[in-house]
Amino acid sequence: MADNWPEGLVMCHTYAEYAKALLHERTRKMVGVRAEPRIPLAIKGELETMVGRVLDGWANKGAITARRSEQVVDTLKVVSEYSHSIIRIPRSDNWRDNPDSFAQPDKCVVPPGHVNLSICCKSHHTPLPAPSASLKETPKSQGGPQLLQELTYANALIGALLSLVHPDLFENQIEVLAELASGRVEVHGRELMDSLFDSWSSPFNGIAVVSNREMPYHRDVQGSPTMYDILATFGTYKGGRFDIPLLSSRFNYGPGTCLVFPGYVFEHGASKTDGERFCLASYIRPKLAQAAFPNASYYEEPSLPNVQDLATYHGLALPEVISRNIWGTDDGL
Fold first, then answer.
1. Percent of the chain as helix, strand, coil, to the nearest 5
2. pLDDT of amino acid 327
3. How confident is the model at residue 171 (pLDDT cuts 50, 70, 90)?
4. Pairing with 74, which of 38, 87, 185, 291 sits 20 to 30 Å away (CA)?
5. Does the structure show a pLDDT above 60 at 49?
6. pLDDT digit string, tens, across residues 285-317
7. Which residue has the higher pLDDT, 54 or 13?
8. Least confident of 125-129, 195-199, 264-268
9. Do 280 and 232 meet the contact criterion of CB atoms below 8 Å apart?
């Protein structure tokens, strides 16, 4: 961890190192966890809870505590009440904006809607990467910087989860973001980006904030076969289910669940619920790495984790450790 990293990345990396130490302690790869005074005691408890769920697989039910869920919902409620809140249902032909997919506003405490937050993305207005328009406060776009700041702890916790299930991808993306924050990369809106990095505590370069919407089957085609997404749910609803048809699998998608999977590879969808559901969908766009390292031939996307990785990172006692391509093709899709 470099001394000149912005506060958000320092927090993200610190939480991740502590979480990995907790996991190694539980799997007897090390004895005792070193004290970390930079992490509040309450956050350490949340990381303990997350680590206790992480070996359950992709569907980490209860990885997010009720306390954190309540804080996230309260934040969304405040931001959504602005007259020109960034959390809204845009008018477009995109399936994500289909009004029929959202709950009825008059039955919701937090109005339905969604918004994408990105510390650096490709824009139609400039050839250079730039922060998403949602993170620039204007009279017609309210609440972006506040929302990001209030989600700092939640995003750092979700980032710590990525470090547990795919350490190589976590370190890879931290490297990309640190390079963007260094000032060596030409971007549009450098002053705004620098101000946002103190609150950007995620290894992901994008976060979709979704309020009270079902999710039709789809693939995230702007991602990559090797890039994991994490979907974290919040609220007090009942009956949440998440489907991945290719695996013939259905997961409990109740409050506090974190699903970790490559959304580019697997078509997926989530049903309606009884009550209000909110989601933070953290994702990675490979084009950001290309912007951060435009002339670096050494940059490569990390490979998918295999059975050997599970033994290496999590200390699983397997009678025979093998490496197998579980994706069915040599080229990843």
1. 35, 15, 45
2. 32
3. very high
4. 38
5. yes
6. 887 777 777 765 545 667 766 656 655 554 444
7. 13
8. 125-129
9. yes
Structure tokens at 172: 């890879």
CB atoms within 10 A of CB 148: 24
Q: Is the pTM of this model over 0.90?
A: no
Answer yes or no: are the C-beta atoms of 266 and 244 closer than 8 Å.
Answer: yes
* Residues near 263 by beta carbon (within 8 Å), at least 6 away in sequence: 219, 220, 223, 229, 283
- Residue 155: left (phi > 0), alpha (psi -120 to 50), or beta? alpha
Amino acid at 252: N
C-alpha closest to that of 318 among 307, 332, 331, 330: 307
Q: Which amino acid is at 163?
A: S
- Cβ-based neighbours of 48, under 8 Å, separated by 6 or more: 22
- The CA distances from residue 301 to 85, 138, 213, 227, 229, in Å, are 36, 36, 32, 8, 15
CA 297 remoteness from chain centre: 27
Show the tokens assigned to 153.
């702890």
Q: What is the DSSP letter of 247?
A: G
- Scan for tokens 């400039």, then name that residue: 126
